Structure formats: C-alpha cells, structure tokens
Amino acid sequence: PLAEICGRGGSHRRIVGGREVAPGSYPWMVGLKRKGNSGAFCGGALIDKQYVLTAAHCFWKYGEWTKNATDIVVRVGAHNLRATEPEAMDLGVASIRIHKNYTTASKGLDIAVIKLETRVKFSRRVHPICLPPGNSADDYAGRVGMLTGWGDTTEGGVSSSVLMAVDVQVWNNSACDESLDQFDVISSMICAGDRAGGKDSCQGDSGGPLMVNRQSDGRWVLIGIVSTGQGCARPNNPGINTRVSDYIDWIPTQMS
C-alpha cells in the first residue's frame, strides 16, 4: 500500500538560500521536459505508480494550452538533468488533466494530474510522496516547509542542472495577503517564504512540491504545489502555492 512507502527520504538538515541535495534524497521529485530539451520547464511530485501532481499553469505557453501530451516527457529518479544517470528514466505522458475551472494562477485552482504512459517500479530512488489529510484543521502556518526544484537560482537567472532544495517558513494566509499587493490570497492557496528574503522557489520550479516533515513518523507530506508570486525571494514576498489538502477529493477523480 502507498501509505507504507510514501514520503520516505529527504534530508532533515536545514538548507539556507538553496543548496544541492544528496542524489536520491527526494525520490518523488520529477522534472517535466519538452522532448529534445535537457532542462525541466516545471517540476512535479509522484503520488502513485502512474500519476504525478503538478501545476496547471505549466501547460499554458504563448497564449495557448499544451494539451498535446506527446511533446512532453517526465523524468523520474533524476538528480542532474544534464547528465546520463543510470537510475533516471524519461517516461511518456498518457494524459494531462487540468482542473476544469482553472483560468490563471492568480485565481487559484492551479493544479493538474499527469498520467504516465507506463507505471514506474518503486525503488529507493523512485517512490511517491504522502498526500495530506483532506479534512485537516492544520493550516501548517509557522511550520518549516521544504521546496525542491531545478528552477532559476536567482530572479532572472539561470536554471540549475542539479536538484536544489531550500527550507521556507509557511505563512498564514492573512499575513500573506497583506504582504502581496498584487494578489488576492484565497483559502485554497498556501504561502511560504522567508521574511528577510533570499529563500524561495523561482521560474522553472513551478509545479514542484512544497512539503513538510510529518512529526509522527518523519515522512514527507505534500502540502503545496508551486504556483505563483511576486518575483523570487524578495523580502516579505512569500511564494504562493496550491493548497493540496483542498483538492484531496478532486485528485482521485482524475486518476483513472
């Protein structure tokens, strides 16, 4: 059962400002790539043998939807996207299921489920993250969350070839709403960032996981999907993520 294997791995070491992780330490992390490109345009998290959770806005480019799944591959088990790694595999996409009411990331509903063409075989380097309970009263505010991705390492900078991680504070929504003048922060969003700045997700990290370590058993739980924000790592400008617990009933309806 998934509940027995999900969320094992990760590092409990505090990471400041973004640092390369040990290979294989976040085995649910996947990179979404366009065929023929080495870099990832978005991240995602493996939640089952054949399904990945990511952001809807990853498939909106040049004013139109990339509904054509044949253009995209999902790299699993990877650490360095620009190297040949024996454990890494590029898997084809069978379908992309975007939330039907999604319009733009600033309005929420920024969530999509990718069905892989083939089921992955779970291993130490490839297995799923745990999903949060749907009825939880826990808004995770004040907790230390972890972000991982291959995105830009500075605002307007270049993407990373190796998987990076950074720990960030989860904010309560009212404080987040007050800090972000360009956004209306709604309950289905969850904010995370460093008040002093310097720690955040950035371009290319979209769709990747915001996760917390479950205190009861040390497993990692997916609480957010990187969505949007004002720049990257600016002081008092937390990043906005899709709050996964709000979609716990929706996710299984897309897995068939």
Automatic annotation (TrEMBL):
<dbReference type="InterPro" id="IPR018114">
    <property type="entry name" value="TRYPSIN_HIS"/>
</dbReference>
<keyword id="KW-1015">Disulfide bond</keyword>
<keyword id="KW-0720">Serine protease</keyword>
<dbReference type="InterPro" id="IPR009003">
    <property type="entry name" value="Peptidase_S1_PA"/>
</dbReference>
<dbReference type="InterPro" id="IPR043504">
    <property type="entry name" value="Peptidase_S1_PA_chymotrypsin"/>
</dbReference>
<dbReference type="GO" id="GO:0006508">
    <property type="term" value="P:proteolysis"/>
</dbReference>
<dbReference type="InterPro" id="IPR001254">
    <property type="entry name" value="Trypsin_dom"/>
</dbReference>
<dbReference type="GO" id="GO:0004252">
    <property type="term" value="F:serine-type endopeptidase activity"/>
</dbReference>
<dbReference type="InterPro" id="IPR001314">
    <property type="entry name" value="Peptidase_S1A"/>
</dbReference>
<dbReference type="Pfam" id="PF00089">
    <property type="entry name" value="Trypsin"/>
</dbReference>
<keyword id="KW-0964">Secreted</keyword>
<feature type="domain" description="Peptidase S1">
    <location>
        <begin position="15"/>
        <end position="256"/>
    </location>
</feature>
<dbReference type="InterPro" id="IPR033116">
    <property type="entry name" value="TRYPSIN_SER"/>
</dbReference>
<keyword id="KW-0378">Hydrolase</keyword>
<dbReference type="GO" id="GO:0005576">
    <property type="term" value="C:extracellular region"/>
</dbReference>
<keyword id="KW-0645">Protease</keyword>
<protein>
    <recommendedName>
        <fullName>Peptidase S1 domain-containing protein</fullName>
    </recommendedName>
</protein>
